[in-house]
Amino acid sequence: MDKFKSLLNITQQINEGISMIDVNGVVILWNSFMEERYNIPASEMLGRKMSDFLEDTISERVLNTKVAMSDVYYSQKHDFEEQELYGYVYANPVYYENEFVGVICTEVDIIDASELSKELEATREKIKFLENEVKSLSMNNFDKILGKNRAIVKAKSIAKQVAKTNSSILITGEGGTGKEVFARAIHKYSERKGTFVPVNCGAIPPELFESEFFGIAPGAIRGGAKAGKSGIFELANGGTVFLDEISELPLNLQVKLLRTMREKKIRRIGGTEEININVRIISATNKDLAQMVEEEAFREDLYYNLDVVEINLPPLRERKEDIGLLIYYFLEKQCKENNKPFLKISKDAFKVLERHEWKGNIRELKSTVENMVVLTSKKTLDIDDIPNYILDSVSKNKQMEIYPMDLNEAIKRLEVNKIIEALEISKGNKSKAAKILNIPRTTLYYKIDAYNIE
């Protein structure tokens, strides 16, 4: 008897329905879940036939057939207010020493189960997304943004100041200036608990915009995931959505983004439930959005919602004082990543890299250093390790230099540039440099002394 009481107590703690009838259809077990679900207390149910309270139950069908059954059902709970009930039930005949003694039935609330399924699916998607983001999240913060240039220092100061607010931020600058690095640093500094989700607006086909941003309800698309799919805003809930290349978003989709920003709610495709969202929007562009607004290529109302705070990142050619710092940072990083001992770089090679225009900005510099590190077999990087297109570009820029009207000064400047260039190509070998310049070696020595060329 004590064991039976303990068993009954356990059934009261389980968060699903458990009931049992004997061979006569009399209820002998009716746990607390069933009491609450059907609004019938066990004190009334026990000792009475189930058919006195409920019609055509699966328990009674199994009682007659003695074959296990399962089913999904719908009914209404008549309480203070009408409540719809959706359940999955499984009834099984019970035998004791080969004698049929009754039917036991378990019941699960489908709405609760489907909500749990949706939460699990969203969690799986977040885990999968986070696995790809962990490394970049751990690396990207303000400490990793190197530079003493006045403009970059100012940009970092503004970013830190607004990071802990909820205001939208627009980061502007040429490609490769580090807009996503800044966005990640802002997110990390903000201490928002949600995820940082980067989105390339130019890479999403218009027909997939809504499903990517708002998600898909369970069963909404034939052949799709049964549990549906979380959209970008759900993945980033409590965190930050980074909209890169925001200028590429078509006008008809700009309206939907604006509505979401204003209402802070989304609805999955094929769904009826509105989902509240709390996300911080950081957008980025390498185009002039204000000019696009004037040309009616970008919505004015969306522009003002995105551009609450604007942070402009200067191109690398305007950060000459930072190029050396970045060269050594990437050199150390690439040596570690490619399992090489730390390499040195010659002064001549360093000067060439400093003179380059870097139209691809920091991204181009990083790629160049990586190229030099992986291809060299020497301990010191030199001019011949620099990609040819950079050498050609630096040489062309020198040729395009504007000379003064004073002919003597112009000739002097031209000779100095050409002698330096020849010495760089010959790696300091003056005999080879004299041959390149097509002048006697004694003349070259004289001009090096006269012009004080090192």
TrEMBL record:
All copies of the Sigma-54 factor interaction domain together span: 145-374
On whether Kinase is a keyword of this UniProt record, the answer is: no
Supply one GO BP term.
regulation of DNA-templated transcription
| GO molecular function ontology, one term from the record | ATP binding
Q: Which Pfam families match?
A: AAA_lid_14, HTH_8, PAS, Sigma54_activat
Q: What is this protein called?
A: PAS domain-containing protein
Q: Which InterPro entries match?
A: AAA+_ATPase, AAA_lid_NorR, Homeodomain-like_sf, HTH_Fis, P-loop_NTPase, PAS, PAS-like_dom_sf, PAS_fold
PROSITE patterns, alphabetically?
Answer: PAS, SIGMA54_INTERACT_2, SIGMA54_INTERACT_4
For this UniProt record, the keywords arranged alphabetically read as follows:
ATP-binding, Coiled coil, Nucleotide-binding, Transcription, Transcription regulation
Which SMART domains does the record associate with it? AAA
Question: What stretch or stretches form a coiled coil here?
Answer: 113-140
Source domain of life is Bacteria
Tell me where in this chain the PAS domain is found.
Answer: 1-54
The family database entries (CDD domains) matched by this protein are listed as:
AAA (cd00009)
